[in-house]
Amino acid sequence: MFKNVAGIDDRLSFLKRIPPDIYAYVGFIVVFFVAYADVFLQQAPFWALNLPFFPTLNSAYYTSGQLYWFHGNLGSPAQPNLAYWLPYVSILISFGNTALAQKLLILSPLFSCFTMYFFLTKHFPGSRLANFSGAIIYGLGPATVLDFSDFLLWGLALIPIIFHSLLNILKGERQLRDILLLGLSLSIFTSFLPQILSLILFLCLIFFSLNFLFVKNKINYFKKTLVSLSLSILFFIVSCPYLLTGTQHLMISIGWVPPSSIITSPALPATSSNPSLYFATYANQEIINTIRLIGGSPGNFLSETNMFGFVLPIFAFLSILLVTKGKKFLNLLALSLISIFTIVIIYGIHLRISWVMWLLYNTPISLFYYPERPLYVVTFAFSVMISVTLDRLFNIIKNSHFNIRKYSWLPISFDWKKLISLLMAILLLFSVFNFAPIFSQTSHQERDIQLPSYYFDIQTWLNAHPGDYRVMFLPTGSFSSILDTPDVFEYTSGYVSYATKNYVDFVNNQLVRFETSNLGALLAPASVKYIIVATPNLNALWKGTPALGAPLTTADLSGPVRYTDGKVQGDPINIKKILDAQRDLKSVYNNGNFSVYENLDYFSKISVFSSATYVIGYKMLCLFCHIFLVLMSNLR
């Protein structure tokens, strides 16, 4: 843009030897750290959505999906999950510094910018400024601005890699490497965002179908490409990371196996008689919100009245008008089709349209629990299409005959056409960031919170008592979710069997009704060693923020002891009276903010499987039942 600057060219000649793409990656880093400087300057660990608290260096805790010891279903056989190795690696390379480990995990939006820019330069080459703009919208735009600390967003960074390898396969380039890369990237992606694997596979099918329709030698192309894609899927299944898990994910995503046969919970899967989860999460998915990538009614804080958000769909679909032929047009057409399909499905769930609801109840769409997840695919499509639109507009400006007289009296002469292109990109990004305020410290402070000291006191006590055991937190709910270790005695919606839920419900009901004096024995099959009761001062209780509710509320800590909606609540004084009356519990610690009871009937490393039968009664009766079951198993 700038040229003929006296005395500067020679001194800056070394810059010409730096690959131009390096400047783009440096630009991403600068924008990211300027936007989130307040978060990265925090010294203490913070609490945020889907961000581990890093309470221990024990690898078994972070790799829970690889082992039977999985808090989500009380030890039932768990689907292995590569995603949970990432927190362990983060804490490992941080040498136990939990604050640093958290900061490493929230770098996912930055890496999303990197991978998207790489994808655009390889498959939509053109203006680097256009590719930079598309990549920064993808990584730092509406998709991540509210949940940038969610470590599951590492799956978002893998979407460009998936389609990079796919498009190479469809073009017949670098077959072996791209076959392996496609399978591996799908495998890792599924560990983070399995809910939208079906949407990713559907987009792959659209790309393949459009390329097949417009290729000359269709039979040879079909055979060669089908073999390559089949090998990629096979590698995906094997590396997912185990054969069973990969097969399950694949069969669920293509509809061969109903999600209900693998994932069962009180609220899932959707049925015509139980649609409440989706009606809540899709409550505000009007069409004008959906096309602006606003998703998720419970956690939606993007302004619904901000008109700047409309630049996203306008600039995206403008690409179809500016590019009308060639491979680039086919790719844009595929992205447009998947965007329209996803938007229609999301809006259809909001309107409860009959055919969309049928898809919701009978296809993998039932895994779209929250609309922001499928909107990640629309974000990918929009970002690519916006990049192409900018590139075409830059070319129109460059090739135009419009000319502005250069001002000879200036020490620097301007290339006005490049300046206009730069201003256009700046205005676009300004509009996007006005809609998705990544530079808003107020927004950050509502989502990344340093908790009051008494929460850390509990964690400190637990760290001083290591071991493979579970803890029952009272009251249950958000109180335990922020501590996250050791494994918690409660079921996790979406990952638990009905049998395990019934077990937890039974124990909690026995507790709140004061119908047992041997609570420790009831908790023993789940390896619960400690019961922690929160007893903070209600007048000094932290109230939370608009984005993140408080872990403990006045409602949790007041009223009669009760068990409703999967949560034990009530006055801690009355809860402690019940626990004090138990014959197999012992009070071992009390600091005013919380009390700890030890289970004298604790057994280590016992798994509760979904097919287990629980026998409640006198000890002698239970002993006879145990002997009978052993004899029956030996007779087999």
Based on secondary structure, the structural category is: mainly alpha
Q: How much strand? A: 5-15%
Unreliable stretches covering 5 or more consecutive residues: 1-8, 64-73, 260-274, 607-624, 626-636
**How many structurally independent domains?**
3
- Mean model confidence by pLDDT: 78
Task: Characterise the protein shown here.
The structure is a single chain. This protein has 636 residues and is mainly alpha-helical. It has 3 domains: 86 residues, no CATH class; 336 residues, no CATH class; 174 residues. The chain is 51% helix and 6% strand. The protein contains 26 helices and 9 strands. It has a 5-stranded mixed beta sheet. Strands 1-2 form a two-stranded antiparallel ribbon. Strand 3, helix 22 and strand 4 form a beta-alpha-beta unit. It is elongated and about 85 Å long. 43% of the residues are buried. The N terminus and C terminus are likely disordered.
Tags for this model:
636 residues, mainly alpha, 3 domains, five-stranded mixed beta sheet, two-stranded antiparallel ribbon, 9 strands, 51% helix, elongated, disordered N terminus, disordered C terminus
SSE layout:
Blueprint: E1 2-3, H1 20-35, H2 37-40, H3 59-62, H4 85-93, H5 98-105, H6 108-123, H7 128-140, H8 154-171, H9 175-192, H10 197-213, H11 218-238, H12 243-253, H13 276-281, H14 287-290, H15 311-322, H16 326-351, H17 354-362, H18 374-399, E2 413-414, H19 416-435, H20 441-447, H21 453-463, E3 470-474, H22 478-481, E4 487-488, H23 498-512, H24 519-523, E5 528-534, E6 562-564, E7 567-569, H25 572-580, E8 585-590, E9 594-599, H26 619-635
Parallel strand pairs: 3-4, 3-5
Antiparallel strand pairs: 1-2, 5-9, 6-7, 8-9
Helix pairs in contact: 1-6, 1-7, 4-5, 6-7, 6-8, 7-18, 7-19, 8-9, 8-10, 9-11, 10-12, 10-16, 15-16, 15-18, 16-18, 18-19
